[in-house]
């Protein structure tokens, strides 16, 4: 861990995570630690286990500064140690063939199960809105898990939706298969995060039915 050797419980990590928008510059996250964060993020659940996310990792200062301009000049993009572009997969039916094909080859599933799953996914992904919804939904699960993993390792994050998606796609050569869902800067806070107010459960929880 970078900032502390204290191991936090899951509850402590969740309660300690807040959005940070001011980061210390020139802080390097070790490769092993960053990979551990990404591996934990990639353990998120997903529809059909298709893992409809990709992590475009930006560490070079020149590249971060390019993305800063695309993100309307938000300084945290330049100052953070790493910026992860969370991408959603619009063509995850391709992954379905890979995943279930490997399971079939390993004898873990029957041909019937393989065909049913691949056909089910392929049918769903013929509908553009379903593909987009699944890309956003599942990428969001991985993004949240990434932020919690980073906090567990002693780093702060912020989820950003403020950027020009078309410019980002062009600047980073993102294939048409993927859509940018959000940016997540990761680093050490220069200024402590300020906790935000939360709605009480009586305003958030509906029991049984409206």
TrEMBL record:
InterPro entries: Nitroreductase, Nitroreductase-like
Top-level taxon of origin: Bacteria
UniProt keywords, alphabetically: Oxidoreductase
Pfam family of the protein (one): Nitroreductase
SUPFAM superfamilies membership: FMN-dependent nitroreductase-like
Database matches in CDD domains: MhqN-like
Domain Nitroreductase: 14-187
Family affiliation: Belongs to the nitroreductase family.
Protein name in UniProt: Nitroreductase family protein
Source organism per UniProt: Paenibacillus oenotherae
Lineage: Bacteria, Bacillati, Bacillota, Bacilli, Bacillales
């Amino acid at each position: 861990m970078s900032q502390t050797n204290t191991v936090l419980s899951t509850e402590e990590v969740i309660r300690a995570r807040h959005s940070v928008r001011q980061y210390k510059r020139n802080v390097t996250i070790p490769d092993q630690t960053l990979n551990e964060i990404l591996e934990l993020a990639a353990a998120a659940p997903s529809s059909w286990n298709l893992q409809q996310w990709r992590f475009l990792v930006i560490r070079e200062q020149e590249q971060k500064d390019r993305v800063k301009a695309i993100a309307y000049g938000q300084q945290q993009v330049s100052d953070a140690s790493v910026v992860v572009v969370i991408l959603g997969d619009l063509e995850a039916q391709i992954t379905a063939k890979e995943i279930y094909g490997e399971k079939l080859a390993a004898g873990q599933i029957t041909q019937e199960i393989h065909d049913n799953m691949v056909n089910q996914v392929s049918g769903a992904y013929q509908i553009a809105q379903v593909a987009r919804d699944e890309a956003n939904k599942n990428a969001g699960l991985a993004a949240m898990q990434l932020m919690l993993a980073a906090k567990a390792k002693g780093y702060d994050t912020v989820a950003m939706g403020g950027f020009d998606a078309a410019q980002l796609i062009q600047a980073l050569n993102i294939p048409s298969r993927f859509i940018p869902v959000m940016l997540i800067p990761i680093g050490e806070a220069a200024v402590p995060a300020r906790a935000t107010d939360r709605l009480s459960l009586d305003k958030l929880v509906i029991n049984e039915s409206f």
